[in-house]
Task: structure prediction
Amino acid sequence: MPRKTMIEAIRDAMDIMMERDENVVVFGEDVGFFGGVFRCTQGLQAKYGKTRCFDAPISEAGIVGAAIGMAAYGLKPCIEIQFADYVYPAYDQIVSEAARLRYRSNGDFTCPIVVRMPVGGGIFGGQTHSQSPEALFTHVSGLKVVVPSNPHDAKGLLISAIEDPDPVIFLEPKRLYNGPFDGHYDRPVTPWSKHDLGEVPDGHYTVPLGKAIKRREGSKLTILAYGTMVYVAEAAAEEHGIDAEIIDLRTLLPLDLEAIIESVSKTGRCVVVHEATLTSGFGAELAALVQEHCFYKLEAPVARVTGWDTPYPHAQEWDYFPGPLRLGRALVETLEG
Amino acid sequence: MSDDGSPGEFGPLSLHVPEPAVRPGGAPDFSNVELDEAGAIRRPDVDANPEDIRDLAFSIIRVLNRDGEAVGPWAGLLTDDQLIEGLRHMMTLRAFDARMQIAQRQGKTSFYMQHLGEEAVSCAFRKALAPGDMNFPTYRQAGLLIADDYPMVEMMCQIYSNERDPLKGRQLPIMYSSKEHGFFSISGNLATQYIQAVGWAMASAIKHDTKIAAGWIGDGSTAESDFHASLVFASTYKAPIVLNIVNNQWAISTFQGIARGGSGTFAARGLGFGIPALRVDGNDYLAVFAVAKWAIERARRNLGPTLIEYVTYRAGAHSTSDDPSAYRPKTESDAWPLGDPVIRLKNHLIGRNVWSDDRHKQTEAEILDTVVAAQKEAESFGTLHAGGKPSARDMFEGVYEEMPPHLRRQRQQAGV
Result:
C-alpha cells in the first residue's frame, strides 16, 4: 500500500472530494496558487481551476463568514485557517453563526463547512504558531471537532468531515505532518514512509466521526490521548514498561464515550493527556466523564498531563510540552495510587 | 522647548469624542444633513466606471419633491398600481409593528423591534429583487417579508414562540428565517451576516447561477471588522451583491458619528475598495426602488458589488427595551428633514389622482382588520406565556442533522 505524509493524505482527501463533488470548494490564505504554507492544497488550483481553489484575503472572519454563506447557498467549502492561532477573528463566525445556523433556522439553512487548521507545538513556533484551542470548539454546541493522529486517519476523517452535513473543525497536529513524534525532540525524526500508519489506501474511504480507536492494548491503565500525544503516550508506556491501553480519541465532539468507558472499566485507572493548557481544557471534560461513568471501577484518581497554563513559550518549548518524561511520571503515580 | 518638533512643542494632547448636534432638552438640529433637491442627481449607466461616479457617495438621490411629484432621472420606474401596492406594504408593516409592539407590552412576547420611519427601505428593496435572490437581513427589514407576501400569521407565531413557531421557539422574536422568501435566518449578532451574503453571492457566481445576494447592515455596525471583511471580499471577487447600509442615525443610544468618524458619509466607505457607492433618500419609496434596481442590475450583469447608504431616521425606539428620550430630543423625529415615507408616497399618489384621504383611511382600516385577524389566529396557537408552546423536546432537535449520543443522553435526563 502506498505510504503518504499527513500533508499528502489531507491533500488526497480534498482532491478526491473535489473530483467527486463539484460543490466542494477550497480556499484560505496562500491556499490557491502556492498551495498553502504547509502545501496541503498544492496542485488543487491547477487541477480544478481558480473558482474551486483560491487565495483569500488575510481575513479569517471573512474566510469563515464567506464559507458560511457559500454553504447556505449549497456549496461545501473546505477552508483553511493558516494556523489555529489565527482563528480567533473568525471565532464569532464559527460560534454564533456556523454552529447555530441549522438550529436557529430549524433546518431552513444549514452549514456544511470544514474549517481545517494546523494545531500544536513542537516546531519552535512560539505563541503564535503552537496553540491547541480544541476546548474552545468542543464547548460549542453545533460543532464537530476532529483531531487525526496519522495519515490514514487524516484522509478518512477529512473525507467524512467534508461529507458531513454540519460544520466540522478539523485540527491538524502540525508536528505530525511529516512523521510521528513521541516528544523526544533530541532524537532523529521518523518519517511516515517508515510507519505503518503512513499507509494510505488510494481512492475514497472514510474513517467515521465519533469513533475512537485503540492504539495499544493494555490491562493496567488507560491513557486517553489524541493527535501528537498518542505517540508521546506510546513512548511513555514503553519506556516505563507499563501495561497501558492507549485510546486515540480521533473525534472529540461527538466523543466515543463507549470506548472510554469500556477501557477504563477494564483497567480501573486513567490518565488524560493533551498539549493544550490545563485549566478548562478538554482533559477536564474527559476526567469528569470518566468519574461519572467509571467511578466505582476506579482505583486511583484520574490524572491529567497537559501543557502548563502559560502562553506557549518559544525558548522553553520542551519545558512546556508534556513529553514522555512528564507523562511517564504520571503513569507511575497513577499505577501506584 | 525646542523648535524641532520635540514633545511639548505643541502642548498636551486631547482626545476627540464626537457628540451629536443636540441632546435631550435641546432643539432638534439636522443642519448637518445636507439635502440635494429631488431629481438633481444624475443616473449613470449601470456599467459606468466606478471612478467616474465617486461623487454619488456624497449626495442624496431623491425622486419625490416637496410637492409630492416624482422628478428627475431616477423617476418613472413604477406604475401607479405598483406604487399603491408599495404603499399598502408600508402601511401593513406599520400596522403589524403597532400591534406587535402592544402585544409585547401586554406580555405576549418578550421583545419586539419596530420599523417606524424606515418602512420604505425594505418594502421597496424587496420589489426590486427577483425570486431566488437572497437577503441577509438585520432585525429591521421585515418589509422584505411583508412585501413578498410572507404570511403574517407565521411571523406572529415566531414572535410569540408558540406551538406553530416555524423556528420551534429557539430564536428571539423577529429573528425570522425563510429560504423560500429569500430571507436568510437572522442571527441577531451584528455585521456577521454581511460577509455571509458576500459568500452566498460568490457561490452563485462560482456555480454560474443568475441569483444575486443582498447584505444588510446598520450605520453603527459598519464599525465591526466583518463589515470591512465584506467589502474586501466583495470587491476582490466582484461578487454579485448589493451591500445595503441603513443609516437611521442612531445605534441604540449612539449617534451615527461614533461609527462614521472623519468620513463624510457611510457610502464613502466603499470608495477605498473601488466599490460604486450611492446615497439615497431612504424615506422615498421611489428613490429606494430606483437605486436598488440600478444596483441589482449591476450585480446581475456580473459588474460586481454596489454599496448603498439609505439615509433615514429611526422614529421609534431601538427595541421594546429602549427609551430614546434618554439620549435624544423627544421631538427629533418631527424635525427629520426627509419626512415620513408613508405620508410622502400617499401624497404622491393623491397628487396623481389615483389615491385620496378617504381611500387611505379606508385602506388603513382594512389593513388593521387583516392584521388583527392574523393576530387572533396566531394567538390561538399560543403566546409566549400562555397556550400552546413548542415542546422541550424541540430544544434538543436540530443542533445537528443527526442527534449525537451525548445530546440523546441529555434529552433522556431532561425527561422529554
